[in-house]
Amino acid sequence: MQCGVLKLDQPGEGIGQIPLYCISGAFYGEITPPNVPHKDLPILRGTAIPVPELAHWGAFFLNEGSNHGYLLLAPRHWKVVTADTGMDGSVKIELQDPSNPQIRMTYLDTGSCGGCAIQRIGSYFPGMKAWAEEQGMVPDLPAFENRSMLNEHVVQYRMQKDAEAYQTFGAAYRFTGQDHTAFSMLEIQAPEAQLKVVQNMLDFFAKYPAAFVY
């Protein structure tokens, strides 16, 4: 359901906008928030999508409360197929291209499950396997073709799937504090020819990887 627009302050190009689609999710906790935010989302600054290409994109938003939710960028014709929030605050959102459901994206956030976050940080981030094991968790290392750290908190990667028509591209976010550990990830399955589209989605995730406060 379109519920407004998301405004983007493009460097050197002024203010552009894309449709905002509010997701109706399944909530397994005690409270089910309204799916429409109670006020307009703020203007986003520093996005790297040229204004002529904005007609291709939509913003998908899962509202989680009175001031936050999860904000994703995807081609505007894509459809939401899953939007679940667990009792521990974990979130899973899946979108797919309705013309080819094999082209899809999955967003995951481990919520308040600290052990889940530690296990996944050890699995996805270079050099963190031993740290996770010290915390009592056993990482499950995926078959990466490559990985690169974008900054202290975000890694981008590509899975090793040489014989398949669709490649898997992803990015993951970590936060490790004294009293809080967090992990989220975005993974996209798409053909190599759509790499530019995929990279725009991953770049957006790298800017807004966790709960979006408005």
TrEMBL record:
Pfam families, alphabetized: DUF4850
InterPro entries to which the protein is assigned, alphabetical: DUF4850
Domain of life of the source: Bacteria
Name recorded for this polypeptide: DUF4850 domain-containing protein
